Structures are given as structure tokens and as C-alpha cells.
């Protein structure tokens, strides 16, 4: 049992005394009942006193609050685009139309000048056929088309890296009521006062005997005697 301040321990409940008549000699010789013995006990002997160290807290005045920060980096993706000039070669002639037509025209004109009458017609046809064939072959042997420039948009994903300062704690400088200063790190920003560890103080676990039983009570002060007084069947552990 723990207690502090003025404490009293109740005596064991007792039954009513017999009302049968008896003489003084018999009363003196008869043993006391437990309840009567309890009522007759005027002191509770102290059996042991053990000192206990207790840590406490005090409210200190805040003198300074210094934030503790760390650098946080963050990458933000975005699209980066730019124009780029590229060269392109136009399609080459395939010899199916242009060279054949031009060759046929030239060959036909040349054949038309040969002979007369039906001979001229035959020469014209033959010249056109020969010119078309020659023009087709020349067109197929043509190397490369014209090279031109054109603009293309090229895009890629890039990361924009940014940094910022993040507050992770606070170093608090304080002064106790006794005038001592110190620094305490906390995660939340305090107000004008902060609870800090106070000086270690002593308490006392006192074991005593009463009514045939041992009991223990915690007191702020060491008892001065070797027994607690008993008043009206109750133990007074502190005055």
C-alpha cells in the first residue's frame, strides 16, 4: 500500500464483546480477542525503511528556440522540346514515266525526219520506241534526288532538381527555477515554458506491523521513530 501525507490504517473489524456477567478476576485472566487486542495496540512497530530515488520534472522558462533543419531534394519531371534541322533526299526517278516519255518524244522527232510517206511514219514509230527505251534506261541510271532541309521537333523527359530546408526538431535553451540553464531537443516548437527533468528526490518505503500483518507505505519523509502511533485502532503513518 502506498500513501503520502497524513495516513491512517484501519484496524481489523471486531465483534461485539459478550454481555454475560463475569467477575473481575475472570476478566483479567481471560485472553483478549483479536479485535480487543487490536484496539489495545497503541504502536505499530516499523520493521524496515527503504530509500527510493524518484525523478521529477520542473517547468522551465524558454530562453531561445533554434530550429534544426535538413536539406530535402526533389525531382520534378517535365518535357523539354527543341527544333532540329534535318536533311532529306527527295525520291529518285524510277524510269517508269519521265525518262520514257522524254525519250519517246525525242526519238519520234528524229524518226520523223527520215524517209517520206509510210516510210516516215514507220521511222517515227521506230524512233519513238527506241527513244523511249533509251530515255527509260538513262532515267534509271540517275543517281540521287535533290537534298532538302526540314525542321523536326525533338522532345525528351528531364528532371528539374530542387532543394528546400525542412525543420525536423528544435533545440530549446531554458532556465530552471533554480537558475540552471540547459538545452533540450524537442520535435514540436514550445511556448514560453517547457517541462524538463528536475532534481532527483528521495522517497521512503516503510514496512510496519499492525494487527499481526505487515504493511508497506511510501512516504515523502523518513520516519523519525521506530513505530507509528495507533489512534482509535488506526495507524497514523505521518503527522
Count of separate DSSP helical elements: 4
List segments where confidence is low: pLDDT < 50 over at least 5 consecutive residues. 1-34
Q: Assign a percent range to the helix content.
A: 10-25%
What is the topology, as strand order, of the major beta sheet?
Answer: 1-10-9-2-7-8
Strand content: over 45%
Distance, first to last CA:
18 Å
Mean pLDDT: 75
User: Can you summarize the main beta sheet?
Assistant: 6 strands, antiparallel
Number of strands: 10
Shape: rod-shaped
The value of Rg in angstroms is 59 Å
Q: What's the structural domain tally?
A: 2
Succession of helices and strands: EHHEEHHEEEEEEE
Helix/strand class: alpha+beta
Give a structural overview.
There is one protein chain. With 239 residues, this protein is an alpha+beta fold. The chain folds into 2 domains: 1-55 and 200-239, no CATH class; 73-156, no CATH class. The chain contains 4 helices and 10 strands. The protein has helices at residues 24-29, 34-40, 98-112, 118-140, and strands at 8-9, 43-54, 57-89, 147-175, 181-186, 193-197, 201-210, 213-219, 227-231, 234-236. The chain has a 6-stranded antiparallel β-sheet, with no helix packed on it. The chain has a 4-stranded antiparallel β-sheet with strand order 5-4-3-6, with no helix packed on it. Helix 3 runs antiparallel to helix 4.
